[in-house]
Design goal:
CATH architecture: Roll
Number of strands: 8
Helix content: 10-25%
CATH superfamily: 2,3-Dihydroxybiphenyl 1,2-Dioxygenase, domain 1
Number of domains: 1
Largest sheet: 4 strands, mixed
Order of helices and strands: EHEEEHEHEEE
CATH class: Alpha Beta
Structural class: alpha/beta
Number of helices: 3
Strand content: 35-45%
Amino acid sequence: MFKHITHTTIYVTDQDEALAFYVGKLGMVVQTDADMDVMRYLTVTLPDDDSLELMLLLPGPPLHDEATAEQVRELIAKGGAGGGVIFETDDCVGTYERLRDLGVEFTQEPTERFYGTDCALRDPFGNPLRFTERPATSARPAGRAAAAPPR
């Protein structure tokens, strides 16, 4: 049986620009940056939690032929590449203000919802990102996964 998810992928059109955003602005750290001959294998993690690696992947070989890669690039630009990440934070408003001051553009300001306070942004490529601050009363028991906030 599976134990946990170790990697997830977000398609980007420029891996160096992705690093500037995910590391330079969001504060993630590079976990792996390796040349695999056919592709650059690039992952980032949260500084205090390397259990889930976010792969910043260029559309193209070995996964896509050029025609498919171009279609994926078009979907990325529209925010429809199928990716997206929801981060958890202890301070949604404070995180929003810090990132806004770094020039991050938001699509939704912090909003209180039944599952906590969250907001939305897009990375430089159009991928949707959110971060959520859970209410103090919604701590989940160890070993139990919480339902993801609705989109």
